[in-house]
Amino acid sequence: MALRTIVLEGDSCLTKVCRPVTAFNGRLHQLLDDMAETLADANGAGLAAPQVGILRRVCLVLDEANECYLELVNPEIIKTEGKQSGLEGCLSVPGKFAVVERPNIVRVRAQDRDGNWFEAEAQGLTARAFCHEIEHLDGHLFVEHVDHFLTEDEIEEYLKEHGEE
Ligand code: NI
Asked: How far is the CA of 161 from the centre of ligand 1 (A)?
């Protein structure tokens, strides 16, 4: 495994529509393993392949128990329910945080690293991460939903009111 470099806002990799994965081979497994190591190192809730410069429909999302990363290959959102507002950031947009509205419950359909289709449903932070990461695969960043980034004081106040996530 190896750490990969996370590209930052302004890099053209982050604005491209990624291509589907068609080969479920060792190269894909290496990418997923490297992304997991990179995400753990950055202490993030999710990471999409374009963030490490790979324009393929692959992402990782921290599960609801905060125990493991769900590997999503060629994921699509098939159901959403309700609404939630929460603090959101992105490893490619360091230091910027904003309150973003997302569905509260999100169900996705995806393939695993061997190409088997499965469905997963989550709420809260994991549901938020499903939306955020899958948007990356279509070349979109969370900042497109934002008209006000929180100041450091506002972040502190927000976390005091809502607890750490
Ligand atoms: Ni992101």
From this structure: 24
Q: What is the pLDDT of residues 14-59, one digit of tens each?
A: 999 999 999 999 999 999 999 999 999 999 999 999 999 999 999 9
Q: Choosing from 71, 88, 133, 135, which is the catalytic residue?
A: 133
CA of 92 to the centre of ligand 1 (A): 6
Is 133 a residue of the active site?
yes
Distance 91 CA to ligand 1 centre (A): 6
Cross-strand pairs, 107: 79, 121
CA distance 73 to 59: 7
